[in-house]
Amino acid sequence: MGRTLQNTMINLGLQNACDEAVYQLGLDMEELEEIEEDAGLGNGGLGRLAACFLDSMATLGLAAYGYGIRYEYGIFNQKIRDGWQVEEADDWLRHGNPWEKARPEYMLPVHFYGRVEHSASGAKWIDTQVVLALPYDTPVPGYMNNTVNTMRLWSARAPNDFNLRDFNVGDYIQAVLDRNLAENISRVLYPNDNFFEGKELRLKQEYFVVAATLQDIIRRFKASKFGSTDSVRTVFDSFPDQVAIQLNDTHPAMAIPELMRIFVDIEKLPWDKAWDITKRTFAYTNHTVLPEALERWPVDLVEKLLPRHLQIIYEINQRHLDHIASLFPNDVERLRRMSLIEEGGTKRINMAHLCIVGSHAVNGVAKIHSEIVKTQVFEDFAVLEPEKFQNKTNGITPRRWLLLCNPGLAELIAEKIGEDYVRDLSQLTKLHEFVDDDLFIREVAKVKQENKVKFALYLEKEYKVKINPSSMFDVHVKRIHEYKRQLMNCLHIITMYNRIRRDPAKLFVPRTVIIGGKAAPGYHMAKMIIKLINAVAQVVNNDPMVGSKLKVIFLENYRVSLAEKVIPATDLSEQISTAGTEASGTGNMKFMLNGALTIGTMDGANVEMAEEAGEENLFIFGMRVEDVTELDRRGYNAHLYYDRLPELKQAIDQIRSGFFSPKDPNLFNDVVNMLFHHDRFKVFADYEAYVKCQEKVSELYLNSKAWTKKVIRNIAAAGKFSSDRTIKEYARDIWHVEPSDLKIPPPNEPRDAGQDKTPNGTAA
């Protein structure tokens, strides 16, 4: 979520008033804002997307709730020591959190372990361990519409009789100390991005958020006029018309068997009725196609922790496979591929398959990704139910990612086209009229230069590095991962360095290359990549032959509040994943909206950015998905490129020989070995095209006016990438609710009783 103060002032239309009031008190608002800790309760794009979605849902007047876990420790703070990443705990609640309100009156029990007893009256889950879920509510204000939604985060608490009711007669002290075991559930965020780690505590976290949330939703449904009760029990027929639940990847997939358990075991609905309601309630968004990221929980772990849920999953699977067998008799291979249970070695539950079978809609997050989901990853399921599969291209909130972080540019745009674009970003197309306006061109360039100077001062103050604000700011910020190919950027840096040294007199367009991002603590290769970038920076930044022509900076502890500083100052945005690996990306959109040009592959939302702005206004290079597929078919041989490309050979030989690590010449052996023998993401195959494309970038940068014209065309084409547009599509195609432009009256004015926030009352 990042910081909340400035976002709240902007959405409430109070920023100027607050700035002035604080100034009157002899304080500086910006200084105040810098004191607030980021709420870093997610890993990367997935968590930030949820945050943008909450802002858009409130702005569109949807009755929507964001549910998650109130981690005591969020994503770790990254320190760089001697070029290596070192993790520190993110104690973000140390000074308290003024934005949250604990709601103990809504505390709910969550059960674990135990066993299942079957009788005539149905299944009973008994002898369980209970953990309490305590909700904390954070307000989510819409933009200038007097709507405030809720983000409800659950914290784990041990019940007061924890470990005291049973065999623990004597050891009272130990029993109280053991409360920590229960409360550890919400202690810390698992720091993996695009990687599945099948740990018991992680499964506990996933079930904890799901069980508490579903009880909360059902409590709210029963309290509403829709959850009307006959004398015996609640009628749930209208449940899917009143409730829509969107599964943000497979992490909350246990919601599907949990809702079935509530309907069948507790509410005593017949299975078929319960299953129909469940399917119509859930929709699933897929966020990655990397096999190592797909959740596959061992059956024996689920059986120990959630025995009833395993039985329900088996039943769902049996009925699912019976259906397929009736359509494709004797096709056992198809049954194996489509089963929710993977046999062989340890039996595992494929959570993506569970989500597809248990949802009425499945979507990818960019056109190319949704196509890959349909035709490759879940092909068998799409053949069965093609109408279930959709695309919803991701977006970003223009409130945080333009108004808040780049007020200079936001104001400049408002001068030209008015202020309405903030709620309807498609209006940015009006900027096309000004693409040849010399004054506007100069003003856009001036705002960018001011942002660069400001960021340069920040770097000087925080990191004691002096950089040239007139150099091209070439920025690559995102989680460190092999598929995102920070290594390819690194090879380009080494290539530029070698060219400067080979011919110091030759014209060279000065660059400041900024790379930032966190590596998962257990991801060895990602940590080596950080060390390599820092080792290269050490050599480049201290070579007198290079001077101010080339500087390399590794940006420590990349997070939302740092993104808000670096993105508005960026000239060149690096979006260079291997085609077919980045589901969408959202950083790419933030850079586009903030006046950077993109160098990128035809991957994720880059494809649609090129479609909107015109491919000639982005620097597109490298293999397309088809080329990657073809190269896989032929077999990728890294040595071919190494032998054919002298500059690539030189760079690799330098890494290999210890040129960048003289004290330990073998330091980067693992990296070089990976690049030659098991590089799944084919860095060498795109190296030549990347370097050539970078030459075009430098050439254009020399012509400030031509560069800025491309910038304006990009900003004018960025409207599609508002999360408001994304949420309108979810609302229309999946949730079946009507967004409302109505500004509800402020609380100090009498409300018109007839004015409903949403004509159709479904809560998402």
Automatic annotation (TrEMBL):
Keywords: Allosteric enzyme, Carbohydrate metabolism, Glycogen metabolism, Glycosyltransferase, Phosphoprotein, Pyridoxal phosphate, Transferase. GO terms for biological process: glycogen catabolic process. The keyword Cytoplasm does not apply. It is an enzyme of class 2 (transferase). GO terms for cellular component: cytoplasm. Its cofactor is pyridoxal 5'-phosphate. It catalyses: [(1->4)-alpha-D-glucosyl](n) + phosphate = [(1->4)-alpha-D-glucosyl](n-1) + alpha-D-glucose 1-phosphate. Its EC number is 2.4.1.1. The modification N6-(pyridoxal phosphate)lysine is found at K590. The keyword Transferase applies. Residues 738-764 are annotated as: Disordered. CDD domains: GT35_Glycogen_Phosphorylase. GO terms for molecular function: glycogen phosphorylase activity; pyridoxal phosphate binding. Belongs to the glycogen phosphorylase family. Allosteric enzyme that catalyzes the rate-limiting step in glycogen catabolism, the phosphorolytic cleavage of glycogen to produce glucose-1-phosphate, and plays a central role in maintaining cellular and organismal glucose homeostasis. Homodimer; enzymatically active. Interacts with PPP1R3B; recruits the phosphatase PP1 which dephosphorylates and inactivates PYGL/glycogen phosphorylase. This is Alpha-1,4 glucan phosphorylase. The gene is Pygl.
